[in-house]
Amino acid sequence: MTEVDKKLIAEAKRVREFAYCPYSNFAVGAAVLGESGTIYGGCNVENASFSVTNCAERTAIYKAVSAGEKDILALAVVAQGAEPVPPCGACRQVIAEFNIPHILMANLADDVVEMTLDELLPGAFSASNLEE
Ligand code: THU
Q: What confidence tens digit (pLDDT) does each residue in 70-98 have?
């Protein structure tokens, strides 16, 4: 793991404290590295209408994109658990949309699993499938 990887995990842990998760009580933090070098953190934000919930990974990615950074180099996600937390299917699709090549999953005990995008979502549906 690089120093930047460690910073991403630290930021994901920091913003996890802000998770709004009154329904699941499962707090998640994520952080992404923009091409500029800026790190954007995000937490899960739940809703009484459960399906409206936004996962931590998507919050972090959408913050980066909203700041003008579509070139995202890495993503870290952290939650409490025996194993590092894996991104859900919807987040995998968003990670694929922005072609994020390097994904770090961690838990609070600092167990870390690293994956490439292809390992995370092989055969992803993408813009190329919309071409005639
Ligand atoms: N959650 C995330 O934020 N990221 C994940 O990778 C897995 C799930 C959130 C969604 C919901 O607020 C809570 O965790 C329980 O599913």
A: 999 999 999 999 999 999 999 999 999 99
Domain ranges for the chain: 3-130
Secondary element (H or E) of residue 107: strand 102-107
Report whether residue 87 contacts ligand 1, using a CB cutoff of 6 Å.
yes
pLDDT single digits (tens) 53-75: 999 999 999 999 999 999 999 99
Residue of minimum CA distance from atom 13 in ligand 1: 26
pTM for the predicted model, two decimal places: 0.97
In a mutational test of the pocket of ligand 1, which residue from 20, 24, 52, 107 has the highest number of ligand atoms less than 8 Å from its CB?
24
Assigned fold of 3-130 = Cytidine Deaminase; domain 2 (3.40.140)
Binding site membership of 44 for ligand 1 (Cβ less than 6 Å) = yes
Cα angle 81, 84, 87 (rounded to 5 degrees) comes to 105
Length of the chain (residues): 132
